[in-house]
C-alpha cells in the first residue's frame, strides 16, 4: 500500500499539474522564503471539565444527532461504550483519515472489557454518504474536534488517555501537548507525521502544506481517494508540534507500526513521540509488527488474522497501559530514544 495509489508518487501529481519537475524546487524555495511554517507551541484553551452525567449527555446527543442524519453512513457513527458510571479509566479513540469510528470496533470492545469507558467520535466530514466530503476537512476543525472529544472522554473516567491511528495519531500527539494537564497515556498507531520518503521527500512536504493545504492550488485526488489538500491539514498539525515538547503529566507513551507501511515516514513515527516521551522522562515503547503478518498501514485491519489479530489488539492495550513485554510473542517491543 502506498500513499498515492498505484504507481503514482507525489512527484507524479506535481508534474501532471505543473508540467515541469523543476517547479517543485522553485516552490520549495519560495515557500521557505515567503511563507515560513515554523513550529510553534500548540495552543488550545482548556475546556471546563465535565462530570460523568454531563459527558454522557454530550456523547449521547452526538450519537443521537448522527443517527438522525441521513447524510451519515450508519456504520460510521460515533460510539460510546459506557459502564453506566464513572470508571477509574477512560480512553479516547481517534480514527484515521478517510475512516470512521467503526475502524476501532474490536479495539474499543477490548478496552471496554478491561473496565474502560470508551469514546470513539467521528471526525469532521468523515463517515458521510458522500465519500468525497472528507476532502474539505480543515486543520482547525480537526484540532477543535480532538479537544472537544477529549473533554467528553475526561468526564467518563478518573484517568484518561488517547489512542490515535494515522492522522488520528497526529491529533493524539497534539492533545498530549495541548492538554497535557489531562492526557496520561498515549498510543500512536502508524502515526502520520510525514509521508513515506519514497512517496514524498522531506523537502516537498512544506510546499505541499503551503500550496495544497492553504488551497492555493486546486486540489488533487489520488487513486486511493486521498485529497492532497486534506492530507496537508494533518501534516500542518504535525509540523506545528514543538521540536522541544513541554513536560506534562504523561505516564506512558507507545507506538505500533508495521515495516510494510508505505504511507508514513516510519522514522518520524518514532522520533516525534520519542521527544514527547523524553520530555516527560518516560520510555517510549515501540512495537514493530512482524512482517509475516502482511499488515500494512492500517494496523487495526486485523480481522483476517484470526487469533493473531486478537492477540495484537490485546497487545495494543498492553502498550497503552505501559506493559513492556508482550504476552503473545507476536510483536517485538523495544524502548526507543531519539
Automatic annotation (TrEMBL):
Superkingdom assignment: Bacteria
GO cellular component terms, A-Z: membrane
UniProt-listed InterPro entries: AB_hydrolase_fold, AB_hydrolase_sf, Hydrolase_4
Name of one Pfam family that matches: Hydrolase_4
Transmembrane annotation, as ranges: 13-35
Name of the protein in its database record: Carboxylesterase
Organism (species): Micromonospora coriariae
SUPFAM superfamilies: alpha/beta-Hydrolases
Annotated ranges, domain Serine aminopeptidase S33: 90-261
Keywords annotated in UniProt: Membrane, Transmembrane, Transmembrane helix
Amino acid at each position: 500500500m502506498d500513499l498515492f495509489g498505484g504507481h503514482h508518487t507525489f512527484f507524479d501529481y506535481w508534474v501532471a499539474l505543473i508540467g515541469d519537475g523543476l517547479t517543485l524546487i522553485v516552490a520549495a524555495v519560495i515557500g521557505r522564503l515567503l511563507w515560513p511554517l515554523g513550529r510553534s507551541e500548540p495552543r488550545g484553551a482548556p475546556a471546563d471539565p465535565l462530570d460523568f452525567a454531563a459527558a454522557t449527555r454530550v456523547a449521547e446527543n452526538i450519537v443521537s444527532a448522527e443517527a438522525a442524519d441521513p447524510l451519515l453512513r450508519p456504520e460510521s457513527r460515533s460510539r460510546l461504550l459506557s459502564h453506566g458510571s464513572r470508571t477509574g479509566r477512560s480512553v479516547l479513540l481517534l480514527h484515521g483519515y478517510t475512516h470512521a469510528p467503526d475502524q476501532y470496533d474490536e479495539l474499543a470492545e477490548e478496552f471496554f472489557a478491561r473496565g474502560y469507558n470508551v469514546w470513539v467520535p467521528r471526525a469532521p466530514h468523515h463517515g458521510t454518504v458522500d465519500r468525497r466530503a472528507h476532502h474539505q476537512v480543515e486543520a482547525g476543525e480537526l484540532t477543535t474536534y480532538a479537544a472537544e472529544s477529549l473533554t467528553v472522554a475526561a468526564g467518563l473516567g478518573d484517568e484518561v488517555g488517547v489512542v490515535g491511528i494515522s492522522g488520528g495519531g497526529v491529533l493524539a500527539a497534539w492533545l498530549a501537548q495541548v492538554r497535557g494537564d489531562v492526557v496520561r497515556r498515549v498510543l500512536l498507531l502508524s502515526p502520520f507525521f510525514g509521508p513515506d520518503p519514497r512517496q514524498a521527500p522531506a523537502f516537498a512536504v512544506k510546499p505541499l502544506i503551503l500550496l495544497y493545504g492553504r488551497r492555493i492550488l486546486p486540489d488533487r485526488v489520488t487513486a486511493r481517494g486521498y485529497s492532497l489538500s486534506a492530507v496537508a491539514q494533518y501534516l500542518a498539525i504535525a509540523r506545528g508540534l514543538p521540536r522541544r515538547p513541554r513536560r506534562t503529566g504523561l505516564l506512558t507513551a507507545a507506538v505500533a507500526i508495521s515495516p510494510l507501511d508505505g504511507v508514513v515516514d516510519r522514522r518520524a513515527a518514532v522520533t516525534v513521540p520519542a521527544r514527547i516521551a523524553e520530555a516527560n522522562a518516560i520510555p517510549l515503547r515501540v512495537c514493530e509488527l512482524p512482517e509475516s503478518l502482511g499488515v500494512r498501514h492500517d494496523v487495526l485491519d486485523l480481522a483476517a488474522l484470526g487469533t493473531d489479530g486478537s492477540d495484537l489488539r490485546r497487545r495494543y492495550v498492553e502498550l497503552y497501559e505501559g506493559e513492556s513485554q508482550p504476552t503473545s510473542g507476536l510483536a517485538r517491543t523495544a524502548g526507543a530514544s531519539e
